[in-house]
Amino acid sequence: MDLRQLRYFVALAEELHFGRAAARLAITQPPLSFNIAKLEASLGVQLLQRTTREVALTAAGKEIYKEALKILALTANARELAGRAARGEIGAVHVGFVGSAVLTPLGERIRAFGAIHPDVDVVLHELNSFEQIDALQARHIDIGIIHPRVIPNGIASHSLHGEHFICLLPADHPLARDRTIDVRELRHDDFVLFPRHFSPEFHDQIVALCASVGFTPNIRHQVRHMLTIATLVAKRFGVSIVPRSVDVVTLPNLACRPLGKQATPSELVGIWRDDEQGSAVLSMLHALGAPVQQRELANSPRLA
Questions:
Q1: Which domains are assigned to the chain?
Q2: Looking at residue 301, what DSSP letter applies?
Q3: Which residues form a coiled coil (predicted)?
Q4: What is the predicted pLDDT for the residue at 4?
């Protein structure tokens, strides 16, 4: 018994006429009769009563017809699920991210991907860059969004987003009256920043920005999250330099001002295992803007 025999039998059971069933199946009558006979032989029962005038289902045929419909429906469903899995429409994707990433357009792309693919379970994990690389290698996450750093072998990477830095100040700070901030004017302020071990390259980038105008920032307070940085600045613990996307944070007594002339922008990098084959993961990477190779995903939307 095979699926073709079941399809032939269902068509004949519904038409109760060999000629009409053969036409419905787009075949001739001999292969139809041959496959029905093979099905009966494999089951060891007669499924049809044949006369020169009519075809009728036996009691066994009526039961097999009901079961055949179920089997063919399950087969069609399995085929559909396989196709959706291949296109990255079902499954799970675990995405690691540094805190500021969700404030950028990448956060909206991740949300939009989940809306377009409701059967893909998108799970977010806030981790620093080191933690994401470890989690990726341990297969605890599928994609990471990190600050630029040296990437180990076996991990692919691609720049996903870049933006300028801004300055966070208490709203009553004298410089908050200025439209733009000259970094040199921050030389006497205490800074609120994350610890260097949290993200060395990103930390060093901010320190280098200050060094480029002749001073080393006095990092007096070190905290892990961007929202905590913004809160401490609003509470007058110091000033900070952060990616521009943080300006969506609104707090009493918090001012966000663009910096004047500055060098390298803040950057976010996507990372993933270079042997990644999961279609849902590749579909998410495509949506984020990574140049992944996609066989089945040629029609997946790239989100703006």
A1: 3-86 (1.10.10.10), 91-162+267-288 (3.40.190.10), 165-264 (3.40.190.10)
A2: P
A3: none
A4: 87
